[in-house]
Amino acid sequence: MNTESRLRDIIKSGDETRSTLRDLIAGTESLLRSTASQAGSEAEAARDRLKQQLDAAREQTRGWEKHAWRRAREVSQATDGYVHENAWKTVAGAALVGVLVGMCFMSGNGRD
Question: Does residue 110 lie within any of the structural domains?
């Protein structure tokens, strides 16, 4: 599995997780709205706990997302730095391989 494929899988997984969390939060908010008319201290206490847990889940999700973006920027900057530092090595290596392949093709033409 190449790096590009792994990156696509990570992005897809992150999108699916984010979608699932959004659905969970939306469903929880809907449940809170639908039970708002219910009276009683137990129902009120349950709604308060659920609202606190929902707020905590939202905050934690924001933290994960911020961390993921920060990490992606770090990886991108490191990759960019590596490519810039080793550009001539890469170009020289590709040119050498090209010359060797060309020499192999040219030496094979005389045998036909």
Answer: no
